[in-house]
Amino acid sequence: PTGRESDFIAFKEQIDGVRESSVIGNRYFWRGEIMTHHRDAFYISARMYSDRLFNTDGAHNGEGLLSHYLCDGCTYIMQRGKEYHNIFPVWDWRKIPGTTVEIQAAFPEKIKIRGTGTFAGGVSDGMYGVASFDLEREGLAARKSWFFFDDIVVCLGSGISSETGNPVLTTLNQCFLNGDVTVAAKGSISTVKEGDHALDSADWIHHDRIAYLLYDSPAVRLSNRSETGSWNSISRQASKNSIEHTVFTLWLEHGNTPRSETYAYGIMPDISKEKAASYYANPSVSVLKNSPDIQIVADSERGITGIAFLNTGSTELPDGTTVTVDSPCLALVAEKAHGYDISIADPENRQTTVTVKLKVKTAFEIELFFKLPGGIYAGKTLTQRVAVK
Predict the structure, then answer these.
(1) Is the Cβ–Cβ distance between 132 and 346 less than 8 Å?
(2) Is 120 exposed, middle or buried (0-12, 13-18, 19+ CB in 10 A)?
(3) CB atoms within 10 A of CB 270
(4) CB 46, CB 34: distance < 8 Å
(5) 30 by DSSP, 3-state: which?
(6) Segment 342-371, tens digit of pLDDT
């Protein structure tokens, strides 16, 4: 007995649809470098790794043979909880949702590796959050961030570079094909047939009540067709029998030798095609900056701005307020009736102090000191309230 039997029963009932979910919010697990985001109708998570963490637990007992890229930005998107259930024999394991990957002729020799970058973290106020990390893997570099709001998650990539000559791509999703795939491009909306498609002029793609909004993205590719595989390809102890499923895969191609390339896209679960078109035409969330030094996304409707300061620096919020930090950090600035709530976290998990200078457009200035924790709490978010007269 664990003493939590009732919790497990309630959790199972939520999965089975017997009980409504009461888990609403955003949380960053700083020891595991994963951010989870729950709303009534969906769950989205972002998984990272650094020099403090291994990317996976390896191929123990002949299992997990293709798990190399599970932490290179893996972004699960679930509305029913079974979007990826038993899809793994037919998965393209170089196109795990959310990851940026160099396509080599063969998978890397080692499955379990420790990251080489130090920058991997998340800031969360309990409802909204920003996750960000420096991806460094065998010559491939990318700065990847996720900005979690109520009905949309914005995904940014910058500084994507590789000198190997191999293709580099970022996958938006790879899941079971469930119904039609709709593409909006240059004002025209159409349903695509099963097959492989180049969608370089696409504005948004809709599948299984999820809209993928393309803000600033390179070559867009879509596959919605049958795929075959076997469990034995990922586990030596499993059956070699052929399995076939129809799969939806959406990805971006960065070319064979990308240099400081970028991407920007939004994920909107639980939305109809009509509402996706309406939102794309009049969005409340916008990308303000996406560079190797700073990434910023703002939600004007809710007055929330997420910032990934990849270096020290300064930036201006949509309302004209200037935020300056003296150390790389992740920030979440929420406009409130009293002024602002400012949340700060250190993605390098140091026990350090971050100084935040706030200059409001009314010439009001304040200096805040965030004494961030160390030890097992290194990476935890601290929040301060600022009253503005």
Answers:
(1) no
(2) buried
(3) 14
(4) yes
(5) coil
(6) 999 999 998 889 999 999 876 678 999 999
Report pLDDT digits (tens) over 74-129: 999 999 999 999 999 999 999 999 999 999 989 998 999 999 999 999 999 999 99
User: Alpha-carbon distance 31 to 202, whole Å?
Assistant: 38
Q: How far is CA 27 from the centre of its chain?
A: 13
* Rounded Cα gap, residues 325 and 387, in angstroms: 19
CB 109 within 8 A of CB 84: no
Distance separating alpha carbons of residues 149 and 44, to the nearest angstrom: 11
CA-closest candidate to residue 191, choices 181, 203, 176: 181
* pLDDT number for residue 301: 93
The predicted pLDDT at position 389 comes to 67
Distance from C-alpha of 342 to C-alpha of 304, rounded to nearest angstrom: 10
Tokens representing residue 216 in the block? 């600033």
Model-wide pTM > 0.85: yes
What does the block give as tokens for 96?
């795990």
pLDDT along the chain (389 residues), means of 10: 85 79 89 96 96 87 91 96 95 98 92 93 97 94 97 97 95 97 94 95 96 91 97 94 97 96 97 96 96 96 96 92 95 94 96 92 85 95 90
Radius of gyration of the chain (CA): 21
Residue 383, both tokens? 């929040």
> Which residue is it, tokens 């993928």?
212
Pick from 343, 371, 310: which is nearest to 118 by CA? 310
Tokens found for residue 119: 């920058």
The strands making up 285-290's β-sheet, listed across from edge to edge, are 285-290, 294-299, 304-309, 329-336, 339-345, 382-387
Confidence at residue 13, expressed as pLDDT on a 0 to 100 scale: 85
The strand pairing partners of 29, in sequence order, are 34
For 225, other C-beta atoms within 10 Å of its C-beta total: 15
Cα 364 to Cα 75, 322, 330, 358, 385: the distances in Å are 40, 11, 23, 8, 15
Strand ranges in 230-381 using DSSP code E only, listed in sequence order: 243-255, 261-269, 285-290, 294-299, 304-309, 313-316, 322-325, 329-336, 339-345, 353-359, 365-371
Q: 125-146: buried (b, 16+ CB within 10 Å) or exposed (e) per residue?
A: bebbbbbbbbbbbeebbbbbbb
